[in-house]
Design a protein that fits this description.
Number of helices: 10
Largest sheet: 3 strands, antiparallel
Low-confidence stretches: none
Order of helices and strands: HHEHHEHHEHEHHEEH
Organism: Trichinella patagoniensis
Number of strands: 6
Protein name: Charged multivesicular body protein 7
Keywords: Membrane, Transmembrane, Transmembrane helix
Mean pLDDT: 82
Helix content: 55-70%
Distance between the termini: 85 Å
InterPro entries: CHMP7_WHD
Strand content: 5-15%
Radius of gyration: 29 Å
């Protein structure tokens, strides 16, 4: 909880308590709501992770013995204003009606066959942060050296994750951001035969969908083969160096032995 050291217990109790009716104190209601909305925004932006749950917020904002009892209402207001969405709704908005209906059918079928009580917490997505992370990742990829990419704007998923760890460190968040970028046609993906995911990003100078071509795939295969051969050569040279040392020691011992017997 930021700046809690300078806040007295009475103020904390007020800020952490449930909301009273807006009509009874409009200004106080608005200030309190804005305080918590700003706090949530600062939290998710500082972590580079737009996905969160109500339980996680309560844990993050706990101070001493105080646990916010008003966050459910803050979530409600943020949902109503479109600042956040449930993760399910957000993913549906990216993939369209077909994915939404297919997901619903599969979920209902699964629940019918294997009935259970779903006690998992609802996940929420801070919409603006997804877009912001997408823009940062695009900018980062465009500035990467050729050593990190396959061919300019083509990069493997694993390499991308290493390169943007300071921007978006959580895997689930990165997957969501990439889904957003795919939905706005700023990145395309391709699964290789060895289960590696290749990503091709739209360059700043282009307006075309960055479709991965056969040339991109061929370059990836050549680079992977080159890296494998380089590793094998390094291992061979390392082994050769060890054998060279052993051979030198053998010659020295042999020479000393001959010298001892004949001289």
């Amino acid at each position: 909880m930021q700046n809690s050291q300078t806040v007295d217990d009475e103020t904390l109790q007020h800020m952490f308590s449930k909301f009273r009716s807006k009509e009874s104190n409009p200004n106080g209601y608005s200030r309190k709501l804005q305080f918590w909305m700003d706090s949530i925004r600062n939290l998710v932006y500082s972590k580079g992770n737009p996905i969160f749950t109500l339980g996680q917020l309560k844990q993050e904002f706990q101070w001493k013995n105080y646990i916010p009892a008003c966050l459910d209402h803050v979530i409600f207001e943020m949902l109503k204003s479109g600042i956040i969405m449930t993760r399910t709704e957000y993913e549906n908005s990216l993939y369209g009606w077909f994915y939404k209906n297919l997901q619903k059918i599969l979920r209902e079928s699964w629940n019918y066959i294997f009935p259970h009580n779903d006690e998992r917490e609802i996940e929420y997505v801070y919409v603006a942060l997804v877009k912001s992370l997408g823009e940062q990742i695009l900018c980062k990829v465009q500035k990467l050296s050729l050593d990190s990419t396959i061919s300019g704007n083509v990069i493997s998923w694993n390499e991308l994750r290493r390169e943007i760890a300071d921007i978006c460190p959580v895997k689930r968040a990165l997957d969501l951001v990439l889904s957003y970028l795919q939905s706005v046609r700023l990145v395309s993906s391709y699964q290789t035969d060895d289960a590696e995911t290749l990503l091709k990003f739209c360059l700043s100078s282009e307006n075309l969908y960055p479709e991965i071509t056969d040339i991109d795939i061929s370059i990836y295969k050549i680079q992977k083969l080159t890296a494998k051969l380089q590793t094998e050569v390094e291992l061979f040279n390392e082994a050769l160096s060890k054998y060279a040392v052993l051979f030198y020691m053998f010659i020295v011992i042999l020479f000393n032995t001959v010298e001892f017997y004949f001289f």
